[in-house]
Design a protein that fits this description.
This protein has eight helices and nine strands. With 234 residues, the chain is α/β, with parallel strands linked by helices.
Length: 234
């Protein structure tokens, strides 16, 4: 597995925004959105190659062991990690969890939904966040729709970043194809600066009011949490 970085911070967006977590960011992304705020994780060759045991050692050495908390697998694109590696990793984490009395890990995954990973439906994961991408939607068409529907049936949350009318229309198009409760849909402002995000929030609030969706800020941008204030691997 290629891992771009590991750090402690707070979840910046979506249903668990504000929760402390250990982030494990895998590399590789076939979509490469222009507005992405983690372009450093695009290349599959970027980062360091780590084994499942390397990941387990990182988790065990983290303060998350002593305080309990959330482990967030993100990217890049975690769906590029092989199913076998996921199975072994979750099994090992479950064993590690059992060694600490009263400890409960809460697994969370952030994905563009390019592939449905069955392992993510195991009890270890309490949150699956899928961010459908317009660029991939236009390339893959109905095949992408079928994958997103699998995630919806697995109780995933859908997250969208809005910045203009095209984004607004894209969300409407996805909702036309996928049946999901409005409470499971999160809208967020697009932008890499506060000024850009405030401008994008117009589209976010308009669509949220129209369809009854939830909205979320992006703390990693607002407070510079993701890269500028990461707290190391402990």
């Amino acid at each position: 597995m290629q891992v771009q970085e590991v750090f402690r911070s707070w979840q910046g967006e979506g249903p668990n925004a504000g929760c402390r977590a250990l982030f494990i960011r895998f590399t590789g992304c076939p979509i490469k959105c222009d507005w992405c705020d983690t372009k450093r994780a695009w290349g599959k060759e970027q980062g360091e190659k780590k084994s499942v045991q390397d990941i387990i050692d990182i988790v065990e050495s983290s303060k998350i062991i002593r305080h309990g908390g959330r482990i967030i697998f993100t990217g890049g694109e975690p769906a590029l990690v092989k199913t076998y590696d996921w199975k072994v990793m979750i099994q090992r984490l479950a064993i590690l969890e059992s060694q600490y009395f009263g400890m409960t890990f809460k697994g969370e995954v952030e994905t563009a939904g390019i592939r449905f990973e069955p392992t993510w439906t195991l009890p270890f994961f309490d949150t699956i966040n899928v961010s459908p991408k317009r660029k991939w939607w236009e390339q893959k068409g109905k095949s992408y729709v079928r994958v997103i529907k699998k995630f919806v049936r697995a109780s995933a949350h859908l997250k969208f970043v809005l910045g203009d009318t095209d984004d607004f229309n894209f969300v409407q198009e996805v909702m036309h194809e996928v049946y999901i409760s409005p409470s499971k849909v999160w809208l967020m402002p697009r932008g890499t600066t506060l000024k850009e995000m405030r401008k994008s929030m117009v589209f976010v609030t308009e669509l949220a009011k129209l369809r009854g969706f939830s909205i979320s800020d992006r703390m990693q941008i607002v407070l510079g949490l993701d890269g500028n204030r990461r707290l190391g691997t402990r």
